[in-house]
Design brief:
Layout lengths: L1 H4 L5 H22 L5 H27 L7 H30 L3 H28 L4 H29 L4 H11 L14 E3 L6 E4 L32 E4 L2 E4 L9 E4 L17 H18 L6 H7 L12 H25 L2 H6 L8 H19 L9 H10 L3 H11 L4 H25 L9 H23 L5
Length: about 475
């Protein structure tokens, strides 16, 4: 629609450049001033998204109409709408990931999957509207109105769910209360699952199995370091250590250098957290069960683990966190995320939308390629990790290797752009690698920081993602040369 109304303006690339810089600036502001509550950020943004979707329809009706080419005033309003989307996205995207970061890691994985799902839904909407309406000026306008109308309805539904449904979920209330108190829930497996790890320099008792509840996340309170190889040592002040490449956290113990480390387990009953507490009553029962279990597991002694955790001061709500420290701890992951999206956006969507031609498929060709990318990205972002938790340096190396896509698409576009099978294979590889690396990076990023900093590190990761999008979008213009 926009290519037809504003011919020769390279609208795909123009939209990307108009959207990304302001989004990046807002993300940087939110990282620096990280005391802004996430709830109003998210609600304001989704309300704005609804209004902007409606505004696009009104611009078509009031400024474009049936004329052959849209006036400059219509283009200015459309670009302003794109800029506002960037502002609102900068407010909300980091907030959404930060909100999920205090929950078990599978919820962050779900948010990452949601970002891919949106791309697939967009493509499906476009395919539906293109197929259902005639390829005429009137049909194009109707399909555009239907597309943006449905998009606005989805945004409105998201606003309602976040406002009325999510705050009432027991699992959300449970984990957020613990994060606000300075640490996560202490969840213990049955005593039979305790084992002794003799491979460490200190004795490490690991409570729990290997199910993925929140892998590798450091607990600032000393309550739990949720990886089997985490350990703690004697100290009045908590100190961060690196053991076998994993983060660990220490707390004071009076009579021994040995430490008890608990890992979140995914058991099969309500106390063992396969299904986290869903009501206030479940949460109360859960806490009582945890207190009793921790006392009995420590040979009848008082809950030393809980008492020592309480002695560690937590960051107060509203206290600004040091973003420099978070960046220093997570720079491998942040740089990897940046490189992933520099490479992806230098190719997608501009190259697929404008540079690949097929006489047989015609105008359907870019739609098919973009849909193929989004489906591959969706699969990559939602595929189970199956216990896979690579080191950040490994993910960084894999991100660098994706640079081979640039010459691959350059050669394919020059010599074989009409070979649909070849282009589909390249597009699938680009999309799947983009999605899988994004899911791993976003889900494992909190490994390097304390639980109170989990939201901030996710904001840093989103900033790196959008920075990569921005540089990649600018690089996409180089293809025109």
């Amino acid at each position: 629609y926009f290519e037809a109304v504003f011919p020769g303006r390279h609208m795909d690339r123009l939209f990307t450049v108009a959207y990304l810089p302001v989004c990046l600036v807002l993300l940087a502001v939110m990282i620096k001033y990280n005391t802004v509550p996430v709830r109003p950020r998210i609600l304001t943004s989704f309300a704005g998204f609804v209004l902007i979707m409606v505004a696009v329809i009104l611009v078509d009706v009031g400024l474009v109409g049936e004329s052959g080419t849209g006036p400059d005033s219509a283009l200015a309003v459309i670009l302003l709408s794109v800029v506002l989307v960037g502002v609102l996205d900068g407010l909300s995207q980091g907030a959404i990931f930060g909100d999920a970061a205090v929950l078990p890691s599978r919820y962050t994985h779900a948010v990452v999957g949601g970002t891919a799902s949106s791309g697939v839904i967009i493509c499906c909407l476009r395919v539906l509207t293109k197929a259902a309406l005639p390829v005429t000026r009137t049909g194009l306008r109707k399909s555009t109105a239907l597309y943006f109308g449905m998009s606005g309805a989805i945004c409105l539904a998201c606003w309602g769910i976040y406002y009325a449904v999510l705050p009432r979920l027991g699992v959300v209330r449970h984990y957020k209360q613990h994060a606000a108190a300075g640490g996560g829930a202490l969840e213990l497996s049955p005593p039979s699952s305790i084992h002794l790890d003799n491979n460490q320099s200190h004795h490490v008792f690991t409570l729990g199995g290997d199910d993925d509840e929140r892998p590798l996340v450091k607990r600032a309170s000393g309550l739990a370091s949720e990886h089997p190889h985490h350990h703690s040592n004697t100290s009045h002040d908590s100190r961060d250590h690196k053991v076998d490449g994993h983060a660990s956290h220490s707390h004071h113990q009076h009579h021994t250098n040995s430490s008890v480390t608990s890992r979140t387990h995914s058991p099969q009953n309500k106390y063992n957290n396969s299904s986290p507490p869903r009501t206030d009553h479940d949460c109360i029962d859960h806490h009582q069960h945890v207190s009793n279990s921790s006392s009995s597991l420590l040979n009848g002694e008082p809950s030393t683990l809980l008492q020592s955790a309480a002695a560690v001061p937590a960051k107060f709500p509203g206290q600004r966190l040091a973003w420099q420290h978070v960046v220093a701890e997570a720079w491998h992951s942040a740089l990897a995320m940046f490189l992933v999206y520099v490479i992806t956006l230098s190719i997608f969507p501009g190259v697929l939308a404008e540079d690949m031609k097929s006489e047989k498929l015609g105008s359907w060709y870019p739609i098919i390629l973009i849909t193929t990318f989004n489906i591959s990205d969706l699969v990559g972002k939602n595929i189970p990790f199956c216990g896979l938790a690579p080191q950040p340096s490994t993910l960084l190396a894999l991100s660098v290797l994706r640079v081979v896509f640039v010459p691959a698409f350059l050669l394919a576009g020059k010599y074989a752009s009409g070979v649909a099978v070849l282009m589909a294979a390249l597009t699938v590889s680009l999309g799947f690698s983009n999605g899988f690396l994004t899911a791993l990076l976003m889900t494992l990023a909190p490994a390097s920081v304390e639980i109170q900093e989990a939201g901030l590190v996710e904001n840093v990761m989103v900033f790196s993602l959008v920075a990569g999008l921005t540089v990649g979008a600018v690089a996409g213009w180089l293809w025109l040369m």
